[in-house]
Amino acid sequence: MTDITGRQGFLLHLDSSADDAADSVTRRLTARFAAVWRAHHEQAGYRYRDLAADPVPLPAAAYATLGRRVERQGVVPLAAVARLARGAAEEREWALTRPLIEELRGAHTVLLGVPMYNFTVPAALKSWIDRVTFPGAFTAPESGASLLAGTRVVVVVARGGGYGPGTPREAYDFQVPYLRAYFGNLGVAEDRLRFIKAELTRAGDIPALTRFQDLAKESLAAAQAEVSALAAGR
C-alpha cells in the first residue's frame, strides 16, 4: 500500500487504555478499525503496540542531553545520531528511541486508541509521544519538509462525560486539541488527521450521567459506523 507521496507503508495500531477490551471503548473501536482495514488491504503490513501493557520507558536525562546536542547541529539524519551519543546512557536512550521513530516514519496509517484521563491523554501515550519527538526526527534533512506530510492519522477517543461544543465541560477538553496541535506541529496534513469520538461512555455506571444513556448509545453507534466506513475507505 502506498501513501499520497507514493511511499510504501503499513498500519501502525497503538492502544493506550489501562483497561482490557472488555471495559475499554477505545480498544474495541480500534480493533474494529484494524479488522476492517486489514480486510481491505490484505497485502499491507500491520504493527501493533499496547502502550499500557508494554510501556515505552520515560525519557531519561541522557535523552534530553543527546537531544540538545543533536538539535545544535541542525537536522541530523537518523543514521548519524548514534555518532553524537556520548557514553552508555545516551547510547541506551537512542537505542530505545530510534526503532519507535522509524516505525512511525514508515507507517502509512497511524491508528491511536485514546481514552480521556483527567481531561487529557493517558500517561502511556504521552511517554510514547515524548520519546518519538526527538529533534529533527520527522524533518527531511535536504528540504526541511515534514516526513509525515503523507501519513494518515486516525485518533479514536472516548470520554466518560460530554465535552462537545456547547457542553458545560467543553473547555475541559485537553485531549483532542492537544493531539490536533501535536500532530499538526509534526507536519501531518489537516485533511489526513481524523478524530472519531465516543462520548458519555460512563453513562451506564455513573448515577449523575444516567439520564444521558440514550445519547451515549447514539454516540457509540455513530463512532462504530464512522470507524468502519473510514477503515474501508468510504
Any overview of this molecule?
This protein has 234 residues and is an alpha/beta fold. It has one domain (10-232): Flavodoxin domain (Rossmann fold). It has helices at 25-40, 61-71, 78-84, 87-106, 123-132, 176-186, 213-232; strands spanning 10-15, 45-50, 107-115, 152-158, 193-198. The protein has a 5-stranded parallel sheet, with helices on both faces. The chain is globular.
Task: Describe this protein with a few key phrases.
single chain, 234 residues, Rossmann fold, 5 strands, 41% helix, disordered N terminus
What is the topological layout?
Blueprint: E1 10-15, H1 25-40, E2 45-50, H2 61-71, H3 78-84, H4 87-106, E3 107-115, H5 123-132, E4 152-158, H6 176-186, E5 193-198, H7 213-232
Parallel strand pairs: 1-2, 1-3, 3-4, 4-5
Helix pairs in contact: 1-7, 2-4
Number of helices: 7
DSSP summary, beta strand count? 5
Query: What would the average pLDDT be, to the nearest integer?
Result: 95
The fourth-level CATH homologous superfamily is Flavodoxin domain
Which CATH architecture?
Answer: 3-Layer(aba) Sandwich
- Biggest sheet strand line-up: 2-1-3-4-5
Structure, briefly:
The protein has 7 helices and 5 strands. It has helices at residues 25-40, 61-71, 78-84, 87-106, 123-132, 176-186, 213-232; strands spanning 10-15, 45-50, 107-115, 152-158, 193-198. Helix 1 runs parallel beside helix 7 (213-232).
